[in-house]
Structures are given as C-alpha cells and as structure tokens.
Design brief:
The chain contains nine helices and five strands; from the N terminus they run H-E-E-H-E-H-H-H-H-H-E-E-H-H. It has about 210 residues and is of the alpha+beta class. Helix 2 links the parallel strand 2 (about 45-50) and strand 3. Helix 5 (about 125-135) packs antiparallel against helix 6 (about 140-150). The protein is globular and about 50 Å long. One of its GO terms (cellular component) is periplasmic space. InterPro entries: DSBA-like_thioredoxin_dom, DsbA/DsbL, Thiol_disulfide_DsbA, Thioredoxin-like_sf, Thioredoxin_CS, Thioredoxin_domain. Its main location: periplasm.
C-alpha cells in the first residue's frame, strides 16, 4: 500500500488584506500548477476537490478543519469530495463513498464512517459489514447492497479513477482548485494554512474571470 501523503490546501488570506501572507504563496512552493487543466463538474463555478480515503488518518484529522471551511464557502464555489482508489481496500472504501453519495445519504453518515474506522476499529472492508454498520445509521441494508453493486456506482468509480490520474495525485488528502492547482497539508504548512491557500487560489481564479 502506498505511503500516504499529508495533503491539503494552499495557504493565504490575502482576500482580507493580509498581503504579506499572500505574497509568500507561490507556485512550486505551496502548490503546483497542473500542466493540463482538468474540466470542472459545474462550469461557471470555482471548484475545490478533496481527494481522500476513509482509511487515511491524515484525512480523518483534516475533516474538522475542512468541514468548518466548506460551511462558509461563497455561492460561486463548488466543493467536491472524490475517493482516491489505489487498489484493494482503497477501492472498496471508494465504492462505499460513491454508493452513499448515489443514495443521497453521504452527508448524513460521512463522519460516522470515518469514526467507525478510526475510533471504533471497524474495517468496513466488505459490503455486508458496511450494510450492517450503516443500518445503525438509518440506511436500509438491502437498498445499500443493491446500490453498491449497481452499474451506476461502478461507472462513477471509473470516472473517479480517471480524475485522480488527471490530477496526478500520489497520496491523500490532496486538494485541487478549479482543475488547475494541486496542493497538500505538508506543502501549505498545516490544516489551517491549507484552507488559507485554498482561499488564495479561489481569489486568483475569481479575479481571472
């Protein structure tokens, strides 16, 4: 299994006049610019993508900071989560996330899945184990299994794999702004700084419109 890369978001806050910080944010330092931009899912909006894995401890630790940040995003920003799938249990957990999303219950149980793995020691590595756990979260077992094995979910998995390749990611959590910029927690200096870098790149894209 691959080494996890602490990932994350760029750092700044120049939007609010903190120009000294903004001047410190540079391509090749806190973030890299992709050689080939990737189309966004909602044209007209500035997209922020987080690539993650339910089994990644850094993704779990980043969740509170990321969630607080996403709750305050303006209307012109679209936040998207995409599961990274490098094979094995990564793919199984990716299929779990996409299934929950297809059922419209991802938002309600996303945190519970993370905590089941990292606080309760659950593997959630088989459909039956997932269904049993999710039943306790109010998700119908039969409906989950049916969706998990559906053609639609498997098609979305292939799409997610292709996007991860286009973003050229090698670990998680990784963030992508508007299909152009990639960065992580390590390069930005920490979770809080990562959201600041994301804000900087969002402002950069907004100004370029």
């Amino acid at each position: 299994m691959r080494n996890l890369i602490l990932s994350a978001v760029l750092a700044s806050a120049s939007l609010f006049g903190m120009t000294a910080q903004a001047e410190d944010i540079q391509a090749g330092k806190q973030y890299v610019e992709l050689s080939s931009p990737v189309p966004v899912s909602k044209p007209g909006k500035i997209e922020v993508v987080e690539l993650f894995w339910y089994g990644c401890p850094h993704c779990y630790q980043f969740e509170p900071t990321l969630n607080a940040w996403t709750e305050k995003l303006p209307e012109d920003v679209n936040f998207v989560r995409i599961p990274a799938m490098f094979g094995g249990v990564w793919n199984v957990h990716g299929q779990l996330f996409i299934t929950l999303e297809s059922m419209g219950v991802e938002h309600a149980v996303h945190k519970a899945v993370f905590e089941a793995i990292h606080k309760e020691g659950k593997k959630l590595s088989t459909p039956d184990e997932m269904a049993e756990f999710l039943a306790g979260q109010g998700v119908d077992k039969a409906a989950f299994i049916k969706a998990y094995n559906s053609f639609g979910v498997k098609s979305q998995m292939e799409k997610a794999k292709k996007l991860a390749m286009a973003y050229q990611i090698s670990g998680v959590p990784t963030l992508i702004v508007n299909g152009k910029y990639r960065f992580d927690i390590g390069s930005s200096g920490g979770p809080e700084q990562a959201t600041q870098v994301a804000d900087f790149l969002i402002a950069k894209e907004r100004a370029a419109k």
